[in-house]
Design brief:
Layout lengths: L5 H15 L8 E2 L1 H8 L3 H13 L3 E4 L3 E4 L4 H22 L5 H15 L4 H18 L3 H20 L4 H19 L3 H26 L2
Helix pairs in contact: 1-3, 2-3, 4-6, 4-7, 4-9, 5-6, 5-8, 6-7, 6-8, 8-9
Length: about 210
């Protein structure tokens, strides 16, 4: 079963976000009837959402008992970064020659402007846009879907990683180097820069998460 459609997708996203943000703690039970009542729907779209969450390994279904939250741990976060690194480098290799110079120039300006602002959310948004461009360039719906799921899981933690000024400055410098390598179609350099950037980002985010005791 794929990602639920319509109402089911909306419920899925809401429940997904609550699990990632730990509003639903590991071990909590997600009951169909209360969720259906909250969203004003039948049990069918709720069941679809819970099925997708089970596929995402955020929830486990126990026969005759229901759906129980597994959660998303620091170890899961580390694994997500490693999978993301491999898949995003693949996307870059496939699409580097299709990325338009005008788009790269636009995102470069955005990175430079964000670097001057003390706004973690802005930095996270610009960072996400650059990586979205790379993913879109591969023109692979399946690859985009896999990476999209990983990004949703990582988003809250990625924003935490931009809370420190030194990290924002370093990340912006890495982004600018990467953009320049892509613009000159230097595949080997762009691939190495992207791989290193994601690996370093993983270390930064894990350090920030551990310091906060999340």
């Amino acid at each position: 079963m794929g990602t639920p459609d319509g109402t089911g997708r909306n419920i899925y996203r809401k429940l997904f976000d609550r699990i990632i943000r730990r509003e639903y703690k590991p071990g909590a039970w997600l009951r169909e009837d209360p969720i259906a009542e909250e969203f004003g729907v039948s049990r069918t779209p709720v069941r679809e959402a819970l099925s997708q969450l089970t596929q995402d390994r955020l929830v486990k279904t126990i026969p005759k008992r229901g759906s129980q939250v597994i959660g998303f741990s620091v170890d899961d976060l580390e694994e997500a970064y490693e999978i993301r690194r491999v898949l995003e480098v693949l996307a870059l290799e496939r699409g580097i020659n299709t990325l338009r110079i005008a788009e790269l120039a636009e995102i470069r300006v955005a990175v430079e402007r964000a670097r001057e602002q003390d706004d973690p959310t802005l930095h996270a948004r610009v960072d996400a846009r650059l990586h979205e461009l790379i993913i879109e360039s591969a023109h692979s719906p399946r690859l985009a879907g896999l990476l999209g799921s990983l990004y949703r899981m990582m988003q809250t933690f990625r924003e935490i990683g931009f809370t420190e000024g030194a990290i924002r400055t370093a990340a912006a410098g890495e982004h600018l180097e990467l953009i320049d390598a892509i613009a000159t179609r230097d595949v080997a350099r762009a691939r190495a820069l992207l791989s290193d950037h994601i690996a370093v980002s993983k270390s930064r985010v894990l350090s920030a998460v551990l310091r906060r005791g999340l």
